[in-house]
Amino acid sequence: MIQRYTTWRPHLAALVATGLALVAADITANAQTAAGPTTTPAIAGVVAAGTPIELIRDGFTGTEGPVVLPDGSLIFTETTANRITRIAADGSTSTFLDNSNGSNGLGFNASGDLYAVQVLKPRVGIVYPPSHARTLADQFEGKPFGRPNDLVVDRKGGVYFTDSGAPPRPAGTPAPADQPVVAKPAVYHITPSGELQRIAADIERPNGIQLSPDEKVLYVANTAGEHVLAYDIAADGSIGPRRNFARLEGWRKTDTGNSSGADGLAVDNSGRLYVASTAGIQIFSSKGEALGVVALPKAPQNLAFAGPDKKTLYVVGRGAAYKIALLAEGYGGRAK
């Protein structure tokens, strides 16, 4: 139940009430488009056959970073529109935060501070509440981040995040003359005391990032690779050698290199891993066994469990937002 993580500060409950009072709800049609699948296959323990894939709304401007609020509603980023948007239980949408510095991935700490990786001025920091807003990191060894992509906050207040680096270009296309020199693609850890550590720098395009429910394993989606990667986590937050955790469907060559489209990640209470990718939502057991794929009308970019019992999977991507009723329950100790 949502009560499991209501140790967040009272300002979170206040911000939901304030947002409802100040922002007019944008009620939108729930009619599904004809393109693409509109129901799910059966995946044992996860979703029943024929479950509707409900379109909440299409036409958002950049869709990323969904996380759940204490009341069970959802917020996500419209990165290119420079705002964070809220979806209520009835499907209405409202602006949660304007001028978000191009926030992409989101996460809460135990006190209710909202962390974001940001792409307009690349950085990682707290964006809400305004009184707590600050930058945690914006460069490594003197080089600015290229494109901070996603993050996850652990129970101790440490932050793991990915920097995908400069955007990929078609083969043979030179970099713009005015393109700044940025840090190479990497995975970072900001310790609870604020120290920035680069913990992995051998991933072509690190993207989504997530922790197992027991926080003993760190998962990283490599958009350019054929596998979701996994790392065992030591007591101090450092990680062991990388390993291939699960093989992704849909890995192929593109004009900007190899791609699986692997993006956002989420886990459920049983430790299953959900991966947004070109093929759809790919679901794996805690051992990396492929359990099934839920294809959507538009390729997903990120996902989160929400609703009063965390049994509704919200999926965003390519300007659209969907929801799917599940049998599985999202992990209750994290706002995703």
From TrEMBL:
GO terms for molecular function: hydrolase activity. Residues 1-31 form the signal peptide. Keywords: Hydrolase, Signal. SUPFAM superfamilies: Calcium-dependent phosphotriesterase (SSF63829). Residues 63-316 form the SMP-30/Gluconolactonase/LRE-like region domain. This is SMP-30/gluconolactonase/LRE family protein. It comes from Rugamonas aquatica.
